[in-house]
Amino acid sequence: MDNKIKIHLLVNEIAGNGNAKKAFKKITSLLIKENIDFSFQKSNYAGELINLAKEYANRKHSDNEVLLVIGGDGSLNEVLNGIKRSTCPDTPISYLPSGTGNDFGRASGLTNKPEKLLDNLKNNLTPKRADCGSFKFPGHPQNTYYFANNFGIGFDAYVVQRSNKAKLKKFLNAIKSGKLIYAFNVINALKNQDTFSVDIQSKGKSFHYDDAYFVTTTNHPYFGGGIPILPEANIYSRKLDTVVVEKPNLRKFIKLFLHLFKDGSHINDPQFHYVEAEKIHVKTQRPEFAQVDGEVIPKRPFGVNFAVKHFNLLI
Ligand SMILES: Nc1ncnc2c1ncn2[C@@H]1O[C@H](COP(=O)(O)OP(=O)(O)OP(=O)(O)O)[C@@H](O)[C@H]1O
């Protein structure tokens, strides 16, 4: 199959503070060098990759054609949504993680090296059936949305919301310290994020928590750019996990964090809860921010029906 593949690149050049742009340059020069047929489309505005991916999947393709996404988790999310809403929702996705957080790349063990990715594609175009999350809002059952990583309400969404809008972000990105903004905002969230009540229904059981700090429904272990919130989760489990953490005090927060990075034993803490299932319903009463694959949904009370779905991933 060597040299016979054809690649269509979907690129978000602003992802990863310039990483995606560099990765695009690198891969196109390799493709030219190796005489591999390729075409590309760049994202001109937030959300455009949904349409570009949908249009790609709606067209007919031969088996040797590959759709390759270059960007971060947000870009992958857009492409996933475009593909799943197309007339050919099984169109395989190849992905070169080149964003800031890259949680899906981390969770799936994908390479971020263009040379390695090209070698993989030249040798094997058999996709793996990976999980993704889907969600619907009751009252709007006709609209289904998808996520590759997670849907979080509370603490993680607060951090993402603050980080995405902070003026400081531009400056810190410019001095290549973009991750510092997350550290600042974690401390900020600890001070300002209140607890809220959450109800979860799954597998015929109901759970109620009065003092949730965050509730995150996840497809794999990571959120927030590498925080292994649920080490046992994986993208081939055919299940989603909803994690609820009740508000710890600062001492407890630090202890939980240390356990989280040391051996994953934070999951045994009495303030840490999770349910694993194919379908999970999450309901909150108070307006809270949510984040889906790192993109913010404005504050509102949420009632969300989650279900595990699948997509074809080229590894
Ligand atoms: N031309 C564009 N101008 C402005 N924003 C864009 C453009 N194209 C895409 N976007 C938006 O860029 C945002 C960030 O992209 P992405 O999430 O891929 O990168 P990242 O945030 O650096 O990485 P990660 O999510 O892995 O941390 C997404 O919300 C996407 O909708």
UniProtKB/TrEMBL annotation:
Instruction: Please list the GO terms describing molecular function.
Output: ATP binding; kinase activity; metal ion binding
UniProt GO cellular component terms: plasma membrane
Q: Name one GO biological process term.
A: phospholipid biosynthetic process
**Domain of life here?**
Bacteria
Q: Which Pfam families match?
A: DAGK_cat, YegS_C
Looking at the record, the residues that make up the DAGKc domain are 1-139
Keyword terms, alphabetized: ATP-binding, Kinase, Lipid biosynthesis, Lipid metabolism, Magnesium, Metal-binding, Nucleotide-binding, Phospholipid biosynthesis, Phospholipid metabolism, Transferase
The cofactors required by this protein are:
Mg(2+)
Give the family per the record: Belongs to the diacylglycerol/lipid kinase family.
Q: What is this protein called?
A: Diacylglycerol kinase family lipid kinase
The species is Lactobacillus acetotolerans
